[in-house]
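Subgroup meeting minutes
Present: P.N., E.W., G.H.
Scribe: E.W.

1. P.N. recapped why we're keeping a running log of single-chain structure predictions: easier to compare across weeks, and new members can see raw inputs and outputs side by side.
2. G.H. added today's entry (444 aa).
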Amino acid sequence: MRIEYVSSGHAPRLLLLFAGWGMDEKPFSAISHHAYDFAVVFDYSSEDPIEIPDRYREVVVVAWSFGVIAADRFIRRHPELPVTLRVAVNGTLHPVHDSYGIPEKIFRLTLETLSESSLLKFRRRMCGGTRAMADLLPRLPQRTLESLRDELIAIESMEASHSGWDFAWVSENDQIIPAANQIAAWEKEGVAVRRAEGSHIPDFDTLLHSIITDKPLVAERFDSAAETYEENATLQNDVAMRLSEMWRANCEGVLDKAIEVGPGTGLFTRYYTGWTSIKELELWDLAPIPGNLPGIHRQCDAETAIREIRSESVDAIMSASALQWFNSQRAFIRQCSRTLRKGGWFVFSTFGPENFREIRNAAYPSMPQLMQWLEEYGFDTIDKEEYLHTQKFASPREMLRHIKLTGVNAVGGTSEGVTSARQLISRGMDTLTYHPIIIVARRR
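Output recorded in log:
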């Protein structure tokens, strides 16, 4: 196993891409995500250890093709790494399998007839045709046929253990690992599947920007919208009020220690502090926290900061309309289970996959997916609610203004945002659908 850093600007976060068979870092050399250092792992002919510097506060793992099983084994061997998001792309935990991976006959034929000519055919199918492969030609991997043969032999013998994958990305037109096999494999594991157009090797630059949160940008956008947020965030206020009342109906109201994640301007904070008695309250947020809010203020990334909290030391963790900005809500739920005392409260609202359906396909977990993770990590759901709310605006420009004034335009880069705005205006889009999910849970 080898690792090469494509970009290393000493960011506090690392994007770790486990590439497929026969790869090196060259096909991914044009990818960048300025909020993250970026490294490619490849060549699974041996499982020699690779070193990840301990300066990274967060590691995001995206694994492609046969890299999925290699990543699964790597994560299992390195529980000390602060891994949050884990996404499988066009691969499964069963690399050679007639129902859940590459059919054994095709794999055997690939191994037995491996040559420069057969490799070229494989790459053509991987890209979805000769024309699509033209983009890869200037950046072809530099690997020997012997190393590729050794890698195939090693991969065939690998067994996985399922390291808590967030979701699987499946290309409908995959000519290497049949999409039906991938879907069947992940459904068997209880992992959500997101389907997309495309070939075995996707447009990674677009994919990565769509699934990974640019946290510095989120902080910047919400900080700039702080003065206009409450005036325009009527839906978020309704969610905060409902969440507070659902918790109040089940909670005695006296707590020793509680942490609120993403208080923003304090909509939810003001609701629950009106009826609870909390001896030690901490507020955590990516953006600066208003000085008029109670408790200890900590400007931090809650996804990683929670790993620093002692196990079973907190009575309640609360969050209203913030978890959707996390890379992995699943990983955060797991950490909340570790951190909370038995009987401790996990009280939160987030947004579901129908959120902003008019302008993008949200990658947010559904209510059933969240319920599955809560059950898996030892929570009883005390109360829950989800609903759709459609908000109509006088014009597309007014809709875009609303998005800006509430700080929720923090997805994607600047140029991507400008393009989207122009498209929305030209299409006359003037409605937005919100999909709040509200849950009150308690650790068993």
